[in-house]
Design brief:
341 residues, alpha/beta, Rossmann fold, Dihydrodipicolinate Reductase, domain 2, 2 domains, six-stranded parallel sheet, 10 helices, globular, binds nicotinamide-adenine-dinucleotide
Length: 341
């Protein structure tokens, strides 16, 4: 197993609890300290988790032995924490999206490269057993010639979800709305299956919430392979339904719903479809997701640090979904398709 890895967690809001629980369940990993935005929140976090807590990441890193910094702050604050951690020589595992646009993501990647530390981006749904199976089946050519891939995220978030937060749905804090915050998980799986993107034609709107970002997005994506697909993401579709990744090929189709293969119809092949034990997708409740997939991804990152190899989702991998979403936003502003780099 090697030496114990010590983690610091910056940002002690909703998702931080998933990191603390995951790290505490992994052999040879420990949470050394937490960092909140204020002294008062640090005291509350120390009380809640019984772990040393600070209100300044630089001070934390001066006082504590830390190998890996987990960034769980608002999306538009990831860069700031990443630069501090990278300059202190710490490896970084950062919540999705890495940052709110590719320019800021590139600065994070650069800071990590300059300091020779690893950067990982949380996209825990890539670690779902059924997604792994689906990807293997698609890549093995089981569906024959591909016809289309769709990412559908008909989620719901209440007005208070946005109103009670200083950053959700804002352009500076979130980078947008339903696409870059909620939809990005499925957009990431979509681009992983489809490969490099050639062109996007998108439209985003704010329909039912009083926010700067979008609560409805639709896009047609053309991959470099010639395959096309569509993305639909929302936080206005009450009561919220599990997200779907639909893969259609000439020999059949597979649909992943809430991380589980819900439909499997491929000519001449039997496959047992799992029955979901409830909605664990976060379609209407952001905290309904289990920490199990975070645990798998944090374990992968810890192994990468120990063996000096790349984590499954490094900075450049994490950048791809942000670039695709940025293309959709640009297309919507211009009212025309945009060619991707
Ligand atoms: N992977 C997932 O499924 C998932 C789920 C939820 C959130 N997220 C991501 O996690 C991040 C945090 O989301 P959340 O829902 O936990 O948000 P949150 O608002 O509940 O928590 C963010 C925390 O960061 C703190 N903070 C802000 N600036 C800080 C600073 N400079 N130093 C220390 N702390 C600071 C805030 O006070 C707050 O406690 C976002 O990027 C979000 O997209 C990912």
């Amino acid at each position: 197993m090697g030496q114990t890895l010590h983690f610091a967690i910056v940002g002690t809001g909703s998702i931080a609890g998933h990191f603390i629980r995951s790290i505490q369940e992994i052999d040879g990993c420990e949470v050394a300290a937490l960092c909140s935005s204020t002294q008062q929140r640090a005291l509350a976090a120390r009380e809640k988790y019984n772990i040393e807590a600070y209100s300044d990441l630089s001070v934390l890193l001066q006082h504590e032995q830390v190998d890996i910094v987990c960034i769980c702050t608002a999306s538009g604050l990831h860069l700031q924490a990443a630069v501090i951690a990278a300059n202190a020589g710490k490896h970084i595992i950062c919540e999705k999206p890495l940052e709110i646009d590719t320019q800021r993501v590139d600065q994070m990647i650069q800071a990590c490269d300059d300091n020779q530390v690893k950067l990982g981006c949380i996209f825990q749904n890539r670690f779902s057993e059924d997604f792994v199976k689906l990807r293997q089946m698609v890549e093995s050519g089981l569906l024959g010639k591909m016809v289309a891939i769709n990412a559908m995220i008909p989620w719901y978030r209440s007005d208070s979800y946005y109103g009670d937060s200083h950053w959700r749905g804002t352009l500076d804090g979130d980078g947008g709305g339903a696409l870059i915050n909620q939809g990005i998980h499925t957009v990431d799986l979509f681009q992983l299956l489809g490969g490099p993107v050639a062109e996007v034609f998108g439209k985003v709107l704010t329909t039912t919430h009083d926010i700067e970002g979008e609560d409805l997005a639709m896009a047609v994506v053309t991959f470099k392979s010639g395959l096309i697909g569509q993305i639909q993401a929302s936080t206005s579709m009450w009561p919220g339904y599990p997200e779907r990744l639909e893969v259609y090929g000439e020999k059949g189709s597979i649909i992943l719903e809430g991380g589980i293969i819900s439909h499997f119809n491929v000519q001449g092949i039997e496959h047992q479809v799992a029955v979901s034990s409830g909605d664990i997708s976060g379609s209407s409740n952001p905290m309904a997701i289990s920490h199990q997939l975070h645990r798998k991804q944090i374990l992968d990152f810890a192994n990468a640090v120990r063996t000096d190899t790349q984590p499954v989702i490094d900075g450049r991998e994490g950048r791809k979904a942000v670039a695709l979403i940025e293309g959709i936003y640009r297309s919507s502003r211009l009212g025309q398709p945009v060619i991707m780099g």
